């Protein structure tokens, strides 16, 4: 059980890194970025390439953070800025095109094979957590790094002037104009930060999941679930809902199938356990249509 | 992406000469016999399985070249089509080859989902089809057809060999871990039936969705299961990840599986794979003249090491050669052709092979142990193992 809780925590924290960027970008800029999963994939492949070239995964972390922010800024500057006021359909077309571009780029650079990324040598050991089950030290490190990043984000959003503007912009975008704030700068910052987080999540996840074509797709969907449950645009909402989903998903997958064979209801539970997360989303939407932490309809 | 090469100048001259030679032969019979047999190679030349498709195609070309470019006295023309391993395009691509390109024979494919599309088409058109990889049981079971042969394996076979080997050793309780999709389930069935033959049991099956790699929730349950061994089916990148995480989880229960768990993945799995036992119809260290010659020739042609996929492709072409030679290239003699192919017994790089009544390959399943990057054959898990062909009436 302890091991399963750890699994849920680690999965949830990684989800948070991806979902927080998604929710910020949507909250502040009103853009549904379908290419957010591709950013995650870019991070993972960057980790693979950097680790292969230098033998060190740690180098990929700053590269991912800085490179991700730069990439985000560039994308915002050249593309997203011009689409902020456009219809959602246009934005969907744009971000979908970016997915295709990213996949094509991945194919050119790294091909279509699965690649595994080695865990950094000094973390390549396991820590026994229960009798007969060990947890890799790298997974503990990922939990730690995610918590640090989450804390940094919390402080940035809750305790700084920039953070306050972002919160304001996320809650009611008109306020930014009324107060005469520089919307462009806010958008640029938010998009760069969101991109950097997704890329870093990809870097961290690379040794855990391997890198493979389309790896961002399933993560994108689950990140949307996180955003919807947490409430659009809410960072703390994304945090708690990511943890909730990490746990529900892990426990559902671990214990649900055990009901198989114990009568009709057992079979039903087993069959639905893989979709526990989506059932949770439906329940939350029925109960609180704006999400657990959402304020805006 | 296709790997067709433009015709060389020399090829053009040769072709012209052949055409000229054909034109000087007056009888219609001779002309009909000189008409090349069109063989469609519907394989993935791009995507995740590109390397598998390429190796199969290379091996087919190699066998045809060894036979002097002719099978049963008729030249062979290859028509390549990239199926991209996309099941949704399977039927359409198969129709293109069979109807538009009018191929006489279809060799394909790797992905089981695409195979079902091909199967649907060729069951209707009656085109002679040889499967060089896709293991979906149904192809030579309930959906078997007199014009469809398989030279690779059924999903049931390798895992069944593993189950048999464990059962013989006295293993009573095992768990099975896999992706929740057809290949995983069919392998699981084979494993279970193998164990049960010797009184063993699969007490727990753990699955996750294909192609997810979040194995931790499954691995964390294993210490709580009272089992002597964990059997599994994963392939490609999923197999790499699973084996590494299994090792990192420090589980005491030994891991084993269908051969695909460590096939083409050992380098990436590294230390973590050391000592894992698997069962497959091919492996490293099969010491036979045929195998050595095949590996050398394949390496000379492609600069790659031959693998199980190349063997399967080579045997698809070998089987076709046997059929065509029996009827002297006369495809009209369908009965004679199929009869010869059903009765075929030949020497494969993997060892002796033959065909079962449901037209599935019968071959040895080897027990292998992963050692220093090689799947070393350590014994035979099941000799001349035939798929039961349940539900096939031919």
Rg of chain A over CA atoms, rounded to whole Å, is 19 Å
Largest interface: A-B, 31 and 37 residues
Q: Could you tell me the strand content of chain B as a percent range?
A: 15-25%
Residue stretches of chain B low in confidence (pLDDT < 50, at least 5 long) are 1-7
List low-pLDDT spans of chain A.
Answer: none
Q: Report the biggest beta sheet of chain A as strand number plus sense, adding barrel if it closes.
A: 2 strands, antiparallel
* CATH level 1 name of the largest domain in chain B: Alpha Beta
N-end to C-end Cα span of chain B: 38 Å
Sheet-strand content of chain A, in percent, reads under 5%
Q: The CATH topology of chain A, please?
A: ABC transporter involved in vitamin B12 uptake, BtuC
Number of helices of chain A: 12
What is the CATH superfamily classification of the largest domain in chain B? Response regulator
Overall residue-averaged pLDDT value of chain B: 91
- Tally the beta strands of chain B: 15
> Mind describing the biggest β-sheet of chain B?
9 strands, mixed
Q: How do the SSEs of chain A run, as a string of H and E?
A: HHHHEEHHHHHHHH
Assembly context of the chains: heterodimer
Spatial strand order of the main sheet of chain A: 1-2
Question: How many domains make up the 3D coordinates of chain B?
Answer: 2
Mean pLDDT across all amino acids of chain A = 88
Note the main attributes of this structure.
heterodimer, A: mainly alpha, ABC transporter involved in vitamin B12 uptake, BtuC, two-stranded antiparallel ribbon, 12 helices, globular, B: 394 residues, alpha/beta, Rossmann fold, nine-stranded mixed beta sheet, six-stranded mixed beta sheet, 13 helices, disordered N terminus
Q: What does this entry look like structurally?
A:
The complex is a heterodimer of chains A (297) and B (394). Chain A has 12 helices and 2 strands. Chain A is mainly alpha-helical and 297 residues long. Chain A has one domain (2-115, 123-287): Orthogonal Bundle (ABC transporter involved in vitamin B12 uptake, BtuC), CATH 1.10.3470. Chain A has a two-stranded antiparallel ribbon. Chain A starts with a helix and ends in a 10-residue tail after the last helix. Chain B folds into 2 domains: 36-153 and 287-355, 3-Layer(aba) Sandwich (Rossmann fold), CATH 3.40.50.2300; 156-280 and 367-385, Response regulator (Rossmann fold). Chain B contains 13 helices and 15 strands. In chain B, strands 7, 8, 9, 10, 11, 12, 13, 14 and 15 form a 9-stranded mixed beta sheet that branches. In chain B, helix 12 packs across helix 13. The longest helix of chain B has 19 residues, at 308-326. Chain B is globular, with a radius of gyration of 22 Å. The relative contact order of chain B is 0.13. Mean pLDDT of chain B is 91; it is low at 1-7. Chain A binds chain B through residues 3-4, 7, 10-11, 112-116, 119, 126, 128, 130-136, 209-210, 212-213, 218, 250-251, 253-254, 257, 274, and chain B through 46-48, 50-51, 180, 205-209, 211-214, 216-223, 236-238, 240-241, 244-245, 248-252, 268-269.
């Amino acid at each position: 059980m302890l091991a399963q809780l750890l699994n849920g925590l680690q999965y949830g924290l990684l989800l948070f890194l991806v979902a927080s960027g998604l929710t910020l970008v949507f909250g502040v800029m009103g853009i549904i970025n379908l290419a957010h999963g591709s950013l995650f994939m870019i991070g993972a492949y960057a980790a693979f390439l950097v680790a292969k070239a230098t033998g060190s995964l740690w180098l990929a972390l700053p590269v991912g953070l800085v490179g991700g922010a730069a990439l985000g800024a560039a994308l915002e500057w050249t593309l997203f800025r011009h689409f902020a006021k456009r219809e959602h359909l246009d934005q969907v077309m744009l971000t979908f095109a970016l997915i295709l571009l990213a996949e094509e780029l991945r194919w050119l650079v790294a091909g279509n094979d699965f690649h595994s990324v080695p865990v950094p040598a000094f973390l390549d050991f396991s820590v026994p957590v229960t009798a007969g089950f060990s947890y890799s030290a790298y997974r503990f490190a990922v939990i730690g790094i995610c918590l640090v990043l989450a804390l940094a984000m919390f402080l940035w959003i809750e305790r700084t002037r920039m953070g306050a503007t972002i919160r304001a912009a996320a809650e009611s975008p008109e306020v930014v104009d009324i107060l005469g704030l520089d919307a462009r700068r806010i958008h640029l910052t938010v998009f760069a930060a969101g991109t950097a987080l997704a890329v870093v999540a990809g870097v961290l996840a690379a040794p855990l999941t391997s890198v493979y074509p389309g790896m961002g797709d399933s993560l994108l969907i689950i990140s949307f679930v996180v955003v919807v449950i947490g409430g659009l645009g809410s960072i703390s909402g994304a945090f708690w809902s990511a943890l909730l989903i990490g746990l529900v998903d892990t426990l559902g997958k671990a214990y649900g199938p055990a009901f198989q064979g114990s009568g009709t209801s057992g079979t039903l539970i087993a069959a639905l356990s893989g979709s526990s997360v989506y059932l949770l989303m439906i329940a939350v939407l029925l109960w609180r249509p704006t999400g657990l932490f959402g304020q805006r309809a | 992406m296709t790997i067709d090469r433009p015709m060389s100048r020399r090829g053009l001259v040769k072709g012209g000469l052949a055409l000229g030679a054909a034109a000087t032969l007056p009888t219609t019979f001779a002309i009909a016999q000189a008409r090349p047999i069109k063989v469609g190679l519907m394989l993935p030349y791009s995507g995740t399985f590109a390397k598998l498709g390429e190796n199969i195609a290379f091996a087919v070309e190699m066998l045809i070249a060894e036979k002097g470019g002719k099978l049963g006295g008729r030249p062979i023309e290859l028509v390549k089509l990239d199926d991209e391993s996309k099941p949704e395009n399977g039927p359409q691509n198969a129709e293109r080859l069979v109807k538009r390109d009018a191929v006489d024979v279809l060799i394909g494919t790797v992905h089981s989902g695409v195979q079902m599309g091909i199967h649907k088409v060729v069951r209707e058109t009656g085109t002679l089809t040889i499967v060089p990889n896709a293991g979906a049981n149904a192809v030579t079971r309930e959906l078997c057809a007199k014009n469809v042969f398989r030279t690779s394996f059924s999903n049931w076979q390798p895992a069944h060999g593993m189950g048999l080997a464990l059962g013989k050793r006295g293993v009573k309780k095992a768990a099975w871990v896999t992706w929740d999709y057809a290949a995983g389930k069919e392998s699981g069935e084979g494993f279970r039936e193998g164990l049960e033959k010797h009184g063993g049991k699969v007490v727990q099956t753990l699955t996750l969705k294909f192609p997810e790699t979040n194995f931790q929730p499954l691995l964390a349950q294993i210490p709580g299961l009272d089992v002597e061994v964990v059997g599994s089916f994963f392939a490609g990148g999923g197999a790499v990840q699973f084996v590494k995480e299994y090792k990192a989880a420090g589980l005491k229960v030994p891991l084993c599986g269908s051969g695909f768990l460590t096939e083409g993945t050992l380098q990436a799995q590294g230390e973590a794979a050391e000592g894992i036992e698997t069962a497959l119809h091919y492996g490293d260290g099969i010491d036979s003249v045929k195998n050595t010659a095949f590996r050398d020739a394949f390496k000379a042609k492609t600069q790659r090491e031959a693998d199980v996929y190349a063997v399967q492709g080579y045997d698809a072409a070998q089987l076709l050669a046997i059929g065509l030679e029996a009827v002297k290239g006369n495809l009209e003699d369908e009965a004679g052709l199929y009869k010869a192919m059903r009765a075929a017994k030949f020497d494969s790089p993997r060892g002796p092979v033959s065909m079962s009544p449901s037209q599935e390959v019968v071959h040895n399943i080897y027990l292998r142990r992963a050692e220093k990057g090689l799947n070393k054959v350590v014994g035979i898990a099941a000799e001349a193992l035939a798929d039961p062909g349940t539900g096939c009436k031919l």
